Amino acid sequence: MVPTKPVLLTGASGTIGRLLSGRLAALGWTLRLTDIAPLPIRLPDRASFTTADLEDQQAVNEMAEGCGLILHFGGISTEQSFETVLGPNFRGAYHIYEAARREKARVVFPSSVHAVGLYERTQILDQDCLLRPDGYYGLSKAYGEMLARLYFDKHAVESVLIRIGSVLPEVPDERILSTWISHDDFVRLIDRCAAAERVDCSVIWGQSNNSRGFWRKDARLKIGWTPLDSSDSQAERVHGKVTDNPVVERYQGGKFIVVDYSRADFPPREMFESE
Ligand code: 15L
């Protein structure tokens, strides 16, 4: 379905932003692209590009004017210091939700595996599990999910919160056999986020149909999305591709966890048991 109003895409110069710019424009969408960094690809048909900082609330409001959907892929996407993440991810997300409230726009908020990264890989999670962020980046995603709930309950701003695993063309290692989402499944999911009649404030696990997946129940029926791809056929190719760090290998968040990790042991399993 082609949205009737323009769609604002933040983070357009990033990896996911570039994928979505090209693929959604090819579907006929009218995109308003923005990023703090220049757009490293040719401007797609019907798209405009504005260089802007998510910390600039006026700029965000102006770009969102007249939009019916905001795909908020801007901000920091790796584990960084609290001060680095604070402006783009915390204040930036607030600006996006304020703009969505003004425009009565729907938001697609990319949460992450890193909002639940300190669950062990043997634990199977449902959408209502307690969040267990694995760093300041994961914390910003947990905050974004709470922000979305606040704006839905208080202001009726609809959101799809996609807890994205790993959006990659192919699986690079054993961990990502669990977290992988193919480009095609991901683009189909974004299309459903726009097309679904009602999304309320829904959580989707952003993973393909991987038999090694860590995640189970979510709102995919409501959104009308079914992943068609699976990492399973890539298992043989990445067999044995693991790190030699027991903390990395124990938890769903993988390498992000060991950035600034100062525990001498493992975090307790039972503290946030989901069931
Ligand atoms: C994420 O949230 C990151 O943005 C991405 O770069 C990957 O590292 C992904 O998680 C992952 O953990 O595989």
From TrEMBL:
Where do the NAD-dependent epimerase/dehydratase domain residues begin and end? 7-171
Tell me if Oxidoreductase is a UniProt keyword of this record: yes
Q: Which UniProt keywords apply?
A: NAD, Oxidoreductase
Q: Which SUPFAM superfamilies match?
A: NAD(P)-binding Rossmann-fold domains
Query: Cross-referenced InterPro entries, in alphabetical order?
Result: Epimerase_deHydtase, NAD(P)-bd_dom_sf
Q: Which Gene3D superfamilies match?
A: NAD(P)-binding Rossmann-like Domain
Family designation: Belongs to the NAD(P)-dependent epimerase/dehydratase family.
What is the protein name given in its UniProt record?
A: NAD(P)-dependent oxidoreductase
